[in-house]
From TrEMBL:
Superkingdom of this protein's organism: Eukaryota
Occurrences of domain Cupin type-2 (ranges): 90-155
Protein name: Cupin type-2 domain-containing protein
PANTHER family: CUPIN TYPE-2 DOMAIN-CONTAINING PROTEIN (PTHR36156:SF2), SLR2101 PROTEIN (PTHR36156)
CDD domains: cupin_BLL6423-like
Pfam families recorded: Cupin_2 (PF07883)
Organism this protein belongs to: Piloderma croceum (strain F 1598)
InterPro entries given in the database record: Cupin_2 (IPR013096), OryJ/VirC-like (IPR047142), RmlC-like_jellyroll (IPR014710), RmlC_Cupin_sf (IPR011051)
Length: 180
């Protein structure tokens, strides 16, 4: 992952995080604009890690005020927090196809801009448009931006137990879908 000028024409993500002061009054803890991070070999697709928690339920009285948010992912291993939550957005350039991957997580996704195609390892493709939502339940998939416009998806990832089918655990993977 690298940091450079944002290639996307979509406005960068502004993040406002609230918390409490010592008297218990509501305050704004952070109001900032994040630098885009790039993922993949093309250095075009943009990730904004908006917020992470270390545990569920979250300790929101201490995590927010002590600034323990992780502001970026360093590798695929950091993509999901197995005991906590991750809230991020991902911008896909026109013509982009991600590697097939499966994570041990329950992912809620909302298409915020443009359209994107969700492809599953059985070959099924589903086109999603602005406002459409996906509940991604540990399935092997890739994202394809088959349009000529940039798209942005917002994700909330929750650590989950691995999927077990017929006694076989379906492991996390990145790259080509695993053979059956």
């Amino acid at each position: 992952m690298s940091e450079t000028k944002n290639a996307s024409p979509i406005p960068i993500v502004r993040r406002v995080i609230t918390g409490h002061n010592a008297e218990g009054k509501s305050i704004v803890v952070r109001d900032d604009v994040q630098s885009p991070k790039y993922w993949g070999t093309d250095s075009v697709n943009t990730i904004y890690d908006i917020c992470r928690t270390e545990h569920v339920p979250a300790s929101i009285d201490s995590e927010i005020t002590t600034g323990t948010f992780v502001d970026e992912i360093a590798s695929h291993a950091d993509h999901v927090n197995p005991t906590g939550t991750v809230f991020r957005s991902f911008e896909f350039a026109p013509g982009t196809v991600t590697p097939f991957h499966r994570t041990e997580s329950l992912d809620y996704a909302v298409v915020g801009k443009g359209s994107i195609v969700l492809q599953l390892d059985d070959g099924k493709k589903v086109t999603l448009n602005e406002g459409d939502v996906v509940c991604q339940r540990g399935t092997s998939h890739c994202w394809r931006n088959e349009s000529s416009e940039w798209s942005r998806i917002y994700f909330v990832l929750l650590g989950a137990k691995p999927v077990v089918i017929n006694g076989k655990e379906l492991k996390e993977h990145w790259g080509a879908p695993p053979s059956s």
